[in-house]
Amino acid sequence: MDMLSQIKMEYDLSELTWIKENTIFQSERGKKRIRIWKDKQLLEWHVNWRDEISKQSGFLLDRMIRTRDRKPFFICDTDLVSIHDEIDEPYPTKGKEQEWGRLIGHALTYGINQSEENQCFKKSEPLPLKTVRGSLEQLSLLDPMAKLVLERSYIEAKRRNQKANLIQKRVQERKLPILINFSRLEDARQVFYHLYWISGSEQPIRGYKTIRNLLENWYGKNGHHSTVELLDSIHRCFSLKEDQGLLLLSELLMPHEFEETVTKLFTCKDVNEMPEIINQYFSRWKTTRELVILLSKWIEKDGEKVVAK
User: Fold this and answer.
1) Which residue from 51, 195, 218, 255 has the least number of CB within 10 angstroms?
2) Alpha-carbon distance 216 to 63, whole Å?
3) What gap in Å lies between CA 240 and CA 105, rounded to an integer?
């Protein structure tokens, strides 16, 4: 039985046509997205995450549409398949800090209380700065001036790494939230002016890297004042002024952009693409430096001083 025929049977739908085969189809109940899962544990985690966040926050999420037997997925051949409403209209960022902050705050509250046992989340690994430095030294095609700047950045990257580790040692509560990927601002869509979040099918992530990436993108798009409003809104649902805020700050200090840039340059096959990679690096380095200062001052406003500057 082909995919559309089985969907008709499982969901009592009719008049189905592919928009993008095995990915998006049109039905009499609107446009729908198919997600195919190989890992049942990961699928069940996503089902529970969507249901709980929707229940606790009241936000619209791309929850699994239930089959006629009230199941969140069905089996097609050897795959597990879930169906979701497909929404195209983007949701704004600037001016909507309250809504975004409440969603992130509820996700953090739920994520910090999840058990780490038998979870399918990604585990963060120590940043291999010495290995990165070794890769940098082998970049023979890189412009000498750009290479010199990156070599000097390595010194600051080490300093940032040390400060991040120092902050982590200071905090008493080191438990980290388990989160979906919030990095992509474009995953926010709207239904009748309400926020609708596309939750994806990726492995959940333990730690604050996905929030760091979101703040980078938000700050780059909306600036200082809007980012402060976003932090204020998150804090109303989830405390970021104490240990968890310091853990977020330590994540911002980690020089991931240095590591990622050297990796991109090392694997780049077209020398003409290197200048753009370097320009993106400078932009990210400046953004994270400014975000570290912003978050440090925001935390200090009502609490103890931190060692990020």
Assistant:
1) 51
2) 27
3) 9
Phi, psi (degrees; rounded to nearest 5) at 101: -60, -40
Residues 34/3, Cβ–Cβ less than 8 Å:
yes
pTM for this predicted structure: 0.89
Q: Are 100 and 93 in contact (CB under 8 A)?
A: yes
User: What is the tens place of the pLDDT at every residue in 81-127?
Assistant: 999 999 999 999 999 999 999 999 999 999 999 866 656 666 655 55
Enumerate long-range contacts of 48-56, CB under 8 Å, 24 or more apart: 49/110, 49/180, 49/199, 49/204, 50/199, 52/110, 53/103, 53/106, 53/107, 53/110, 56/106, 56/109, 56/110
Question: What CA–CA distance (Å, rounded) separates 192 from 274?
Answer: 43
What pairs with residue 74 in β-bridges?
Answer: 81
Domain ranges (residues) in the chain: 3-38+62-85, 96-301
Render pLDDT for 35-91 as a digit per residue (tens, 0 to 9): 999 999 999 999 999 999 999 899 999 999 999 999 999 998 888 999 999 999 999
| C-alpha neighbours within 13 Å on the C-beta side of residue 196 | 15
Rg (CA), the chain: 22
